[in-house]
Automatic annotation (TrEMBL):
Gene this protein is translated from: TT12
CDD domains: MATE_eukaryotic
GO BP terms, alphabetized: xenobiotic detoxification by transmembrane export across the plasma membrane
Originating organism: Apostasia shenzhenica
Pfam families in UniProt: MatE
Ranges of biased composition (kind: Basic and acidic residues): 1-15
Similarity comment text for this entry: Belongs to the multi antimicrobial extrusion (MATE) (TC 2.A.66.1) family.
Compartments where located: Membrane
Sequence intervals crossing the membrane: 47-72, 84-108, 129-150, 162-183, 195-216, 222-246, 344-368, 380-398, 418-440
Keyword line: Membrane, Transmembrane, Transmembrane helix
Ranges for region Disordered: 1-26
GO cellular component annotations of the record: membrane
Lineage of origin: Eukaryota, Viridiplantae, Streptophyta, Embryophyta, Tracheophyta
Domain of life: Eukaryota
Protein name in UniProt: Protein DETOXIFICATION
Amino acid sequence: MGEEAKAALLPKREEEDGDGEGDEGISMTLMESSKLGKRVWEESKKLWMVAGPAIFSRVVTYSMNVITQAFAGHLGDLELASMSIANTVVVGFNFGLLLGMASALETLCGQAFGAKKYHMLGIYMQRSWIVLFVCATVLLPLYFFATPILELTGQPPELAAQAGLVSIWFIPLHFSFVFLFPLQRFLQCQLKNSVHAIVSAIAMVIHIFVSWIFVYHFKLGLIGTAMTLNFSWWVAVALLMCYVSCGGCPQTWKGLSMEAFTGLWEFLKLSAASGVMLCLENWYYRILIVLTGNLKNAEIAVDALSICMSINGWELMIPLAFFAATGVRVANELGAGNGKGARFATVVAVITSSIVGAFFCAVIMALHDKFAFIFTTSQVVIGAVGELSVLLAFTILLNSVQPVLSGVAVGAGWQSVVAYVNIGTYYLIGIPVGVLMGWAKIASSRMEIYSSRSR
């Protein structure tokens, strides 16, 4: 009986052993999930430490452009179109190149900060000022000859003339980029984005007040709106410079140095690659607006597309903040010799930015017939914007991923590779398809007119 009892117990013991193994497996899975969750949480905190203030500061800074455009829009349709062409196309072309060139600092300063070579951050920033100032000076003819250039692209003469005049008034804004962009990246790589966020908020408040004074009190019209944008951006430059030079960055800012004039050629090559990488994408949107000026009812078409692109650009500040944060995280991890950490930071950033993009895609779909009221009261323009809203929503969704991947390239120093990708996707595919679809729209409209007349 004792042996039978033992035999009867054997299966139970095996089952118990099996259950033990199952419990152990579940326990291991839970431990791994807990570790992964903890890693995601820690990485998310590091990501949002850069991205959070960057989102705020970028949205606020871009909002100043949107406010300027809205003031112009309430002056009239021609004024809105002129401001859109001047700010979005002329200034935007140069903005894209200078912003891209300044992003070389994200690679250099990020890796230097990760390697604890703190003094080099100030040197790199001064080199960036020199390179960007030379580049900004070379780009000045685009402002002086904006009117004939716009006429050559097929813009209506009245629109080209007024946009050209506004462009000249934007020259001070153009030179503010030379100093502001490197200062932003200098602070960003030290995880001091909160300083830029505070400065942006101050500049925003000043911009709203000055815009009201210039446009409604002094009645300076379209030129007044341009002057307010110049003033507000230079306020931001002055405040950031005061913070840096008055002891805000004791480890990384040691004052002006002649060392900034050494190694300029290598710095220029990396800056040029960064500039080409970003401006190819940035220019793509400007070219679409220029092409829109050749469509029927050019003012309405330009107004509608520029409103959609303003909303897209407004929301794009969030993915661009993740672009900056990802670049910093990847550069810091690579500077510290941690390749796996850089890869994990990339995955977390892509997922986070995609979730944010999906949210704003849903918002645009829900408010497709409402958001144009920010810029205009013209029912024709509002209707045209409503027709474009579905494309705008999907553009916002897709744009939530692409800038983050570009941030990985900046952090790793792969700018030249991304430049080739941008040439292929935007210029060999995007623009030809846009021209073809625009031509088809014109042909369809003309066929409708012809058929209605023949009746």
